[in-house]
Amino acid sequence: MLEWNLLLISREKKMSTLSKVLLLLNFLTILTIYTCSSGDKAYELEGKGVREFEGWAGPPEEPKKKPFDYFYMKYAGRASEKAVSKRSGAMMQETCRDAATTGAKGDLIGKLIGETITGASGIADAESTGKVVMREFQGKLQGVNVKACKPLAIPDPQIPNSEWKECECVVYVRIDGGREAVIARAKEIEGK
User: Fold this and answer.
1) Which residues are paired to 77 by β-bridges?
2) How confident is the model at residue 18 (pLDDT cuts 50, 70, 90)?
3) Which of 29, 56, 66, 124 is the most buried (most CB within 10 A)?
4) Pick from 183, 167, 170, 140: which is nearest to 71 by CA?
5) What are the residues whose beta carbons fall under 8 Å from the beta carbon of 7, sequence distance 6 or more?
6) Contacts of 187 (CB under 8 A, 6+ apart)
7) CB neighbours of 60 closer than 8 A, spacing ≥ 6?
8) What are the pLDDT digits (tens) for 128-148?
9) What is the value of pTM for the model shown?
């Protein structure tokens, strides 16, 4: 009996150590993914086999193709409470995409202007100039579109598509002339 108890204690210690190592490896993997996916430049992310970008890039079909007249931004969304309470995966997917798109519309132009003219040479007062440029470009946007979305939540095996309780979408807007047009307009405004 004593040998049996010692064997169990030894086995528990090994499992405990193994669990700690696995937990640490999971944490490091998540940390690596997170740090590799942050930044301002257009870049490729993993996600359901789709290419997703953030920053200035080419058209959605060929993001590496110039001219870079499209500004891309990631935005997170959540499914509606109604979709979650109804346990409808399809409804979760639709309402999560809608929430991300609607939320992004308000922030997209601000991020576009902020990232484009902040630090651009020849623009002394980026904050004030940015506000004027932002008001001007808000009226000229040709619509905010969704390039791709991916689910983020842990799926519930009882509900198909339940991973869409939370999602991240890449939205984009086209600006004729791209980054250079925004900077040129900011310089014009500052010169007045």
Assistant:
1) 167
2) very low
3) 56
4) 170
5) none
6) 122, 123
7) 70, 145, 147, 172
8) 777 777 777 766 665 788 889
9) 0.66
